[in-house]
Amino acid sequence: MSGDTHKAENLTRIAVLGTLTEFHADPLPYNLNALVDLVAGINPDLLCLDMTLAQWQQQDFSRLPSEYREALLPLAAQTDMVVVPIGGEQAMPRAIAIGWRGILINGARKLLGWIQASAPGPDAINQGWRHELGNLLYSLTRYLAGEAANHAYHTHIEQLTQAALRAAADNPGNRILVVANIQYCHHIRPRLQQQPDIIETAYTNL
Amino acid sequence: MTRLIILTPATLYQEAWRALLSTQLGIEVVDTVSQPQDLGQLIPLNQRPTTILIDLAAAEPAVAHQFKEITPAPGLLFLVDKYDLTEMVALLQADAAGCLIRDATVADLVRGIIAAGRGEIVLPPEWATKALVALARGEVEQGRPFLNTLTDREQDVLRLLAHGMTNKDIAQSLFLSVRTIEAHLRNIYGKLGVTSRTAAVLWAVQHGYGP
Question: Which residues of B touch A75 (CB under 8 A)?
Fold first, then answer.
């Protein structure tokens, strides 16, 4: 075995899977088993989820999206996948505003809800027009909500990225799947790609 | 993949166990038997079970001995009506992986089956502590001096190991992967000069890492 091959095998592999998890109050159009099958097929060593440490420690999953609560957490409980809560101390606040900005945000959110409701499966949210439009709509809601929302957004991205990097550093040579809202994917992936000891890859190649 | 054999006398129970456990991720039900002798000695290498689930009226250590004579490798997991310290210690002394109460959830059972197949001790943490202390008290051999100092992380792992936790539970407690825990355990075994999980646990309990 060459030195380069050996080194590559010891590198931590990490992938990001996007969801539209914040619409957990709405019923999902697709069977959550599709998400279970997808992640079970990937079978990562670590499953990094956007939830707070307190939610994990108290096992309080009542406010978590159904993708987490009804699919990924039960899957992890029954397999060797270890859950790593990477959401820090506080959940990401929802972008809000008053007046016409608020009306536009509500409109954008209805469109986001429709994107989720029309998605045939978890893969559809991670590619193509749904992914791009969803990301664009989230950017619009943050812009409309003002600087505070944008600041909270970037703080949360930093929190998610650093926590995922800590998990990678503590588990060299492992396979890590980060499951987070699609609005974070575009920012987290480039930061992970910059790390020399990590191979950032598509979740289909993890 | 955990390869499972189920021991239970009644055919209906065998079918029920097979139906329940065949659908669980990570488990392949290889066979069901009504007594240890049915296992025979002609199990192909690739069909050798990693775990045997034993559902009998009484959790007899003699059954563990019978199985170990036929096929030495698998983890033996007994189902019990209630937890009893004396019974647990006797099962551990007979080299069983542990026992699980019949009121457990399917998820607990699946995790126990997988853990037993990996050579882990399967007991509820609050009982594991008592059982391991009882086992350690009966153990006259003093722990061997270890040549290298354990790292902080290895001490964390050893402490949780001494509380009877499975690799998955240790991994989840420390937010490390099961593979990382297995690597830490290999290092710990090497530093302690032991070759089995039970020996490492006994060393840990005797050296103050336990409860």
Answer: 25
Domains by residue range for chain B, with CATH = 2-123 (3.40.50.2300), 136-206 (1.10.10.10)
Distance CA A79, CA A42 (A): 12
Q: Give the gyration radius of chain B's Cα atoms.
A: 17
Do the chains contact at A171 and B179, CB–CB below 8 Å? yes
d(CA B146, CA A45): 30
ipTM: 0.85
| Full DSSP string of A28-52 | PSS-HHHHHHHHHHH--SEEEES--
Model confidence over A14-57: pLDDT tens digits? 999 998 766 545 566 667 888 899 999 999 999 999 999 999 99
For B110, which residue in chain A has the nearest alpha carbon?
A78
Q: Which two tokens stand for residue A201?
A: 């890859």
Distance from CA of B165 to the nearest CA of A (A): 14
Instruction: Work out whether the CA dihedral A72, A77, A82, A84 comes out positive or negative.
Output: positive
Range of the domain at A162: 3-205
| Least Cα separation, residue B25 to chain A (angstroms) | 7
Give which of A46, A51, A82 to mutate to test B binding, by max B Cβ within 10 Å: A82
Alpha-carbon distance B117 to B97, whole Å?
8
Tell if the CB–CB gap between B26 and A80 is shorter than 8 Å: yes
Chain segment B150-172, per-residue pLDDT in tens = 888 999 999 999 888 899 999 99
Q: What is the number of domains present in chain A?
A: 1
The more confident residue out of B142 and A189 is A189
CB atoms within 10 A of CB B46: 7
